[in-house]
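Please complete every field before forwarding. Incomplete forms are returned to the sender.

SECTION A: IDENTIFIERS
Entry label: holo-258
Bound molecule: 2-acetamido-2-deoxy-beta-D-glucopyranose
Molecule representation: SMILES string

SECTION B: INPUTS
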Amino acid sequence: MKSMSVVCIVAIVAFITYQLGVLESPPFVYNDTFLGGRELLAIVATTRERNIGQHVERLVVGSKKGIEVLEGGTGMLKAAAKLYDVDDKAPAVSTGVYFDDPFEVEYPRWAIGWAVEGPSFEKLQAMLPEIQEASELSDPIKVIRIGGVGTETFTARIPWRNIFTPMIAPMLHWGRGFQIYQEYIEIHKELDKGVPAIALEVYVYSENENTKEFIDYTVLFGDVANTWEDTFPGSLGEGENATEESAGVPGSVNTATE
Ligand SMILES: *[C@@H]1O[C@H](CO)[C@@H](O)[C@H](O)[C@H]1NC(C)=O
Ligand SMILES: *[C@@H]1O[C@H](CO)[C@@H](O)[C@H](O)[C@H]1NC(C)=O
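SECTION C: PREDICTED COMPLEX
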């Protein structure tokens, strides 16, 4: 009897550990490009809210509403998923970009939204007023370019287990990712263009849109000025708000619990 309950407890602990992904440590793999050098376009709501976890859902939902109101909007989401994904089942991929470490910066810069493919960067910019209105968000919505020539990456693919995955995974993995990047840039000093690295999270959805397949955590570095300038214009210039060394590590979604 006694040994039975021990087996039971071990099984339960193993199950919970698996569900939380605590023992998983997918490697951050280096790539000298992002998507082979292509730019991924995304429509994102930008914010400097401190409690990231309290705002993610609202911004994900609002920005999607804004895109879906466009003619062909659903097709743009699907085409971007196809461009990003390894198979072509995903209906959409959402993107989070984090520019500051929320543990170090009082009002971190971050943005969240959806990858889109089809219209040009300029055409999408012209659609922004319509998107903003339909989103019902007051957070400024922007079109941003992610990647392109000269962007290098370290990526870890985090398996989706359950709704806790996006809350726990940042604490488990982002520190590792940025450490690997720091070690790499120490050795390859010539690659440091003085533009701080960005933390990119890409959520790949399942055919059934309510669940996700996996999340890619990517440290974007090298030539990433386009993403900086599109999302928070002026950040890289001189002046009080110019960024010095605020490279990314987005913290836990649980910063909400303060
Ligand atoms: C780098 O990315 C390209 C394009 O996505 C891919 O084809 C290639 O296999 C990747 N290389 C490595 C080492 O993962
Ligand atoms: C710096 O950022 C703050 C907050 O976003 C803004 O109010 C201020 O105008 C910015 N200052 C400059 C010089 O850009």
